[in-house]
Amino acid sequence: MKLGVFTVLFSQQSLDDALDYICASGLEAIELGCGAYPGDAHVPVDDLLASKDKAAAFKKKIGDRGLEISALSCHGNPIHPDPAFAKKDQEVHRKTVRLAEMLGVKTVINFSGCPGGGPKDEVPNWITCPWPPDFDKAVQWQWEKVLVPFWQKEAKFAKDHGVRIGFEMHPGFCVYNTETLLALRKACGPTLGANFDPSHLFWQGMDPIVSLRRLGKAVFHVHAKDCRIDPENTLANGVLDTKHYGDEINRSWIFRTVGYGHSEDFWRNFVSTLRMIGYDGALSIEHEDSLMSVNEGFQKAVAFLKGILLKEKTGGMWWA
C-alpha cells in the first residue's frame, strides 16, 4: 500500500509547491482534482488533452519526485435535473476519463449523482424512506429512467478508454451505501466500483469493515478520512444533520482527520481488511477536519498512517 493525498487540500499553492511539500512529507501518491466540486487548481485539463507533449511533461513532473497518480477525481452530479448543470459535470467527467487514459491512470472518481424525484423537478431529491408511496415510486424512476441508463453508457465509455470509475458512497446521491453501490455495479458492469471513504459510512451508522468485506474486488481506491459521532447530539437528533459543518458543537457528527474519530485499533483493522480483500493501492488522505489547519490536519494524518500501513509483501507462511 502507498500513502497518498487528495491534492485539493493544497489548492492555494502552485502544483510545484504542493508536490514539493507532499514529497518532503514522505508520501508516495497523489489524487488530483480535475473539476466539478473539487475544482481543477492543479490540472489544466483542456491544455493537457490538447497536447501529448504537455501531458507527458505533466506526468514527468510528478514522477520525477517519486510520486504516482493514484486517481483523477471529478466529484459532481452528472445527472442533476438542471440540464445545464448536468451537462457541465458530464463534460468534466468525460474529459477526466480521457485524461486518465493519456496519463496512464486507471481510476477516475466521481459521485453517482442524484436526479430529481421526477421528470419535472429542478433540484435533486435524495429520498431516505419508502413511504408515503410517492417516495418509493420516485426512487424507482430515478434508478430505471436516469441513473442506470446514464452509467451504463458511461461505463462503456470508460472501458473503451481503459479506465474504471470509482464512486464515492455519499448521502445526497443515489449511491450512498454498500447495497446501492453493488446494485449499480450489477446493472452496469465491473467497470464501476467504489472509492471507499469510511467517514461517510460512519455517520450513517455503518461499519466500514463489514462494507469492505461485502464489496471485495469492487474497491478501486480508498480515502483516509475519519468522522466523530457526537453521542449526545446523535441521541437527541439522530444522524440526519443539516446544520452547517462549522457548527461543530451542535452537530451529530463532524469530519475528523484520521485517528481523531476512531481509534488506532480501527485503522489497523481497516488496512488489514484492505489487504484481505486484495487491495494494494493508495490510501489517499482527504483532510476536511474543521478543527485543524491544513498543515496540522495533514501532518497528523501522515504521522498516524505511516505506522499503520502495510507495505511489504507477505511472503510465505513459514509457520504453516
- Using the alpha-carbon principal axes, give the shape: globular
Give me the CATH fold name.
TIM Barrel
Spans of at least 5 consecutive residues whose pLDDT stays below 50 are none
Strand order of the largest sheet: 1-2-3-4-5-6-7-10
Q: State the end-to-end distance.
A: 25 Å
The description of the largest β-sheet is:
8 strands, parallel, barrel
Order of helices and strands: EHEHHEHEHEHEHHEEHEHEH
Give the oligomeric state: single chain
Q: What level of helicity do the residues show?
A: 40-55%
Overall pLDDT metric: 97
Structural class: alpha/beta
CATH architecture: Alpha-Beta Barrel
Name of the top-level CATH class: Alpha Beta
- Summed up, the helix count is 11
Q: So, the CATH homologous superfamily? A: Divalent-metal-dependent TIM barrel enzymes
Q: What is the rounded Rg?
A: 20 Å
Q: Total number of β-strand segments?
A: 10
Tell me what portion of residues adopts beta-strand conformation.
15-25%
Describe the protein in words.
- The strands form two sheets. The protein has an eight-stranded parallel beta barrel, surrounded by five helices. Strands 8-9 form a two-stranded antiparallel ribbon.
- The protein has helices at residues 15-24, 45-50, 52-63, 83-103, 133-160, 178-188, 198-202, 208-215, 231-237, 264-276, 294-306, and strands at residues 2-6, 29-33, 68-73, 107-110, 164-168, 192-196, 219-224, 226-229, 253-256, 282-285.
- β5, α6 (178-188) and β6 form a beta-alpha-beta unit.
- The chain contains eleven helices and ten strands.
- It is of the alpha/beta class.
- 42% of the residues are buried.
- The chain is globular and about 55 Å long.
- The protein has one domain (2-306): Divalent-metal-dependent TIM barrel enzymes (TIM Barrel), CATH 3.20.20.150.
